[in-house]
Structure formats: C-alpha cells, structure tokens
Amino acid sequence: MANTALVVDDSTSMRQMVSFTLRESGFEVIEAGNGEEALQNVAGKDVKVVVTDLNMPVMDGMTLIRRLRAEAKYKFTPILMLTTESQDSKKQEGRAAGATGWIVKPFNPEQLMQVISKVVR
C-alpha cells in the first residue's frame, strides 16, 4: 500500500509541481485548492504527510493545521508548510498551530523530498 500525501495550494501549478514530485517518489496524492477543500477530500483517509500553503482563499493553512490537529486521526501526522512567508513570527505561529516543518518557496524537489524523508516513517 502506497503512502498517501495531501497537497494543499491555491496555485494549480504549484500544487501540480509538488504532487508530481511526490508521485515520482511513490506517493499517492490527494490535492486540494484550500483548507476547506482539503478537509473534505481527506476526511477519514490515512495520510502520511500533509504539505500545505499558508495563504489561500476560503481557509488558510494555519486554520487547516489547527483543524487537522483537532482530529485524533491527524494529531501526529507530519504537516509541512510550503509558503513564500519566511518571517520568524509566521514560523512560530505555524509551530504553535502544529506545523512539523516550514519550507520557503521556491523549493527544489530534492529539498522537499529530503524534508519529507525525515518526517515520514
């Protein structure tokens, strides 16, 4: 059974780039364009890692992380924030919300997979 990743980004091209990278590494990918769509698409499913953008319409990444952490099923799931935001205050807010890691865009596929290999078991 393949590992499943949830990729959340309102940018279709970014979402496709992250998904392609994960699929090339053997992941099945569930995609969503915002936090609300992510919650609907992932409901009850097993995911090994979540990669989410911060700034999105409808529901942002911080709110998504808080909502996922509130569910027992996703309490310990690694959640990586992939965003253009690099301020320490945002990173601290992310940690407080439950983010496992923070990657600043633009990313390169090797960097993304190195981080994912450290958090997915």
UniProtKB/TrEMBL annotation:
<feature type="domain" description="Response regulatory">
    <location>
        <begin position="4"/>
        <end position="120"/>
    </location>
</feature>
<feature type="modified residue" description="4-aspartylphosphate">
    <location>
        <position position="53"/>
    </location>
</feature>
<dbReference type="Pfam" id="PF00072">
    <property type="entry name" value="Response_reg"/>
</dbReference>
<dbReference type="InterPro" id="IPR011006">
    <property type="entry name" value="CheY-like_superfamily"/>
</dbReference>
<keyword id="KW-0597">Phosphoprotein</keyword>
<protein>
    <submittedName>
        <fullName>Response regulator</fullName>
    </submittedName>
</protein>
<dbReference type="InterPro" id="IPR050595">
    <property type="entry name" value="Bact_response_regulator"/>
</dbReference>
<dbReference type="InterPro" id="IPR001789">
    <property type="entry name" value="Sig_transdc_resp-reg_receiver"/>
</dbReference>
